[in-house]
Amino acid sequence: AMDIADKDKEIIFLQDQITALKNKAELV
Q: Which pTM value belongs to this model?
């Protein structure tokens, strides 16, 4: 169960990073 939770946190973190990059790209 712990491993799955960690994976979910990793995925959410990566999705946030991708969203931030997309926002920066749109501003440029």
A: 0.63
